[in-house]
Amino acid sequence: MKLSSNYILREIAGEKVVVKQGTHGVEMTKIISFNESATALWENFCNKEFTAEDAAEFLQQRYGIDADLASKDSKSWISKLVECGAIGL
After folding, report:
1. 45-55: per-residue pLDDT in tens?
2. Can you spell out the DSSP letters for the chain?
3. Four-way CATH pick for 2-84: 3.30.1490, 1.10.357, 3.10.590, 1.10.10
4. pTM beyond 0.70, yes or no
């Protein structure tokens, strides 16, 4: 899978968000707010192919969490991005 090039990571009012590019004005339904780990995942996998396992491994290495939690968190992150159209499977 790959993150959609139609979305870009920005900082707005001190918050990391992903916004859809190319839309005239800001459509609030196309803004995705990120926490620290979601931002790290986006920055690491932007512009390259990856799997849920790759994302889980990244979380394990970066945050020192166990494999089960990393797998659950990576799948949740991917699921939310798919729901928003910010990732293609």
Report:
1. 999 999 999 99
2. -EE-TTEEEEEETTEEEEEETT-SS--GGGEEEE-HHHHHHHHHHTTS---HHHHHHHHHHHH---HHHHHHHHHHHHHHHHHHT-EE-
3. 1.10.10
4. yes
